[in-house]
Write the structure tokens for this entry.
Amino acid sequence: MNLARLDLNLVVALRALLEERNVTRAGQRVGLSQPAMSAALARLRRHFDDDLLARVGGHYELTALGQVLLDRTSTAYDVLERLFASQADFDPARESREFKLVASDYAVSVFGTELARVVHEEAPGIRLRFAQTPPTVVDDTATLLSAVDGLLMPHGVISDFPATDLYDDRWVFLVADDHPSVEDRLTRQDLARLPWVTYQRTYDAPAVRQLGMLGVEPRVEVSVDSFQLLPLLVAGTRRIALIQARLARLMAPLAAVRVLDPPYEAVPLQEAMWWHPVHTHDAAHIWLRETAARVGRRLAETRADGEGPS
């Protein structure tokens, strides 16, 4: 494919056509007349040798290739937008820009809130947008990172991309305040016999993989796509849940639960910000990474249990 022969404006037209599935609405969206958008569609059909949009009754539907291109075009558009937004110099006090970070609700609660506070104070024109970590993060990390500014995720899940360390954490267990069979400590037998509430994304569970190495197979009763919901699903039940200590400290006052240490030496958790190498030398991105690292260092000065300096 010779990119020099391609009109990159067609990426804009292609995205609008695939998302709107209507030539007139697509043209209005990107500021083109109906004849101009029809001409763009004709060029795209010749290039892909496919109709892309097929008329069914009184409306258009995507062809099989059009459906494939829908997600790819959105990613390509984001990459191009970030490419041409790159800057040699960046003044956070005067610039206006949005940064998109992919993170779990745990990372946003523990780290993202403090990052947002610092950005609010130091760079009033900067916007932060947090997006939920998708299930495909391990399968296609490069594509994900190319379309965002950063991914907040602990070490041990992905690799081979640049990262800056932020803060450490540790794993603890939650049980109900009035749990009928657990007093002030858990045993490995408790982990095997009691029902569990788990965070459902398996890639986020090095500590759960460690349990398998210890011969413990969690009996999962409830799984949920949110770390913050774990305490609420433990309170008033016989269930247990594995959760990060920093989040447990924030959430425990909101539910009738107790925080207990694991009955084994749990693997530590080192949170990091990962990015695609295409962002490495961008001045705005350098500022973002340095700010994140500074916030992380400040957070790391407090122990995960909140009982003094680390």
